[in-house]
Amino acid sequence: MARPDELVFAPLGGVGEIGMNLSIYGLGNRHQRAWLAVDLGVSFGDEEHLPGIDLIMPDISFLEKERKNLMGLVLTHAHEDHFGAIIDLWPKLKCPIYATRFSAALFEAKCAAERNAPEIPVTVVPSGGRVDIGPFNVEFIPVAHSIPEAHALAIHTEAGIVLHTGDWKIDPTPTLGAPTDEKRLRELGEQGVLALIGDSTNAVRDGRSPSEAEVARTIIELVKSAKGRVAVTTFASNVARIKAVADAAKAADREVVVVGRAMERVVQVARETGYLDGVQNFRSPEVYGHLPQDKVLALCTGSQGESRAALARIANDDHPEITLNRGDSVIFSSRTIPGNEKAVSSIVNNLVLQGVEIITDRDALVHVSGHPRREELRDLISWVKPQLLIPVHGEALHLHEHAKLARAAGVPRVLVCRDGDLVKLGPGDPGIIGEVPSGRLYKDGTILEDSKSRAVVERRRMAFSGCAFVAIAMTGQGELADDPEVDLVGIPEKNRAGELFDDIVFDAVMSTIEGLPKARRRDPDALAESVRRAVRAVINEHWGKKPPCLVHVLTV
Predict the structure, then answer these.
(1) Is 47 a residue whose pLDDT tops 70?
(2) pTM for the complete prediction?
């Protein structure tokens, strides 16, 4: 009797980190497998450590190699950390994409807003529906989250059922969309679930995540009691929160003005797909200044401190249409993603200096997470009864705590892995059986670079210690044709003794050239290397840092 095919799993992003989600499932033997990809997301660059890098994406070199065996890409939902890399990376894969209606519509709108975006077809699957993708039968199970149409995926294979949760929570009273489908999850548990691949984001938090309905009530109270203008900022994709803000504005007899392209795009898609049916029409920023202060509410992008988003421009007082003054209020209906604290703090401080009152989730229940806390994780385990649990979507601490909770809840096998680990799920004993290539790609302007690229490495060094540029013109006889030119960028003007760095470096260049034998002076490469070493050494002597040094030798 033939052995059943082996089912394997490998995270290529999103394990040991939050963001940049990409998981792959393989069915077959070690010589040939059919592959299914789930999500293809981004992380955001950190200006401190990755200056000039806009987005970080998973390395898909393994999938490129396996392209002919890649059956498709399935999207759990339309958050950037789950679908933000598709436009850049899909041309390398060209596989079918499957998503439900809202995710597909938001992706289409995202492509339309991008210059030169490729034509990327998406197959729409109904919420709760099933689709055959090669040897995988994928079922979209509705779950509550902070965006419409989030789904857990039940991946049915001849080796067993895997439940890939995506992002989820248990919210018995969502203000928009269906609650998590407990009935279907319990049915899967009765059928038998081989493995649960589960969201760990809030595994360190006790209790349960509060409901969106509670946030909606709080926002109504805050907006009704506000005296001046009100601005609310939230994640543009959180349509339930947009609806809550609209309901609060209506209760307080205020007009909603939508400020920011990302927010406008989501509002348009939500209206087209029926998620804002019955909600009043919103106004454009041009009418903001013509409305009485107690009759307007600005719904703004920029909750994460993005420098080009609406709220940052308002805080810097350079938005062409929207201003805030003393006595106005800004509600941050969001949480600050780790890494964005400085940018958000800068906006808050600028608004406070303008006399604006700031309300955050420290002051009132104006935001709830879209991810499950510990009691919700226990509930899911009790419904699904997995033979194996693998924590994903979290940093090391989140994964560790989720694993510990699963063991305590009686899951027979729990396995913690890292990006790039190849995990056998079944049949037979699960375990890590190998590695697949994994890593990061950096989007630098319009160019994708890997982590070893010159631009990424040197940019980091230049941000830390500046750069020295030296230009030297030499005759064919090895004599200086003119004085060297020195240009120092990002290097202090003077040392501790008050001497000019330009003079210090110039003297070092001259003495190095004069000290070299003529044969070395006639060799441009040898001369450049000697000057480079001397310049870095003298700057280090006077400053304590060794900046990159570029030396250009011209023979005249």
Answers:
(1) no
(2) 0.88
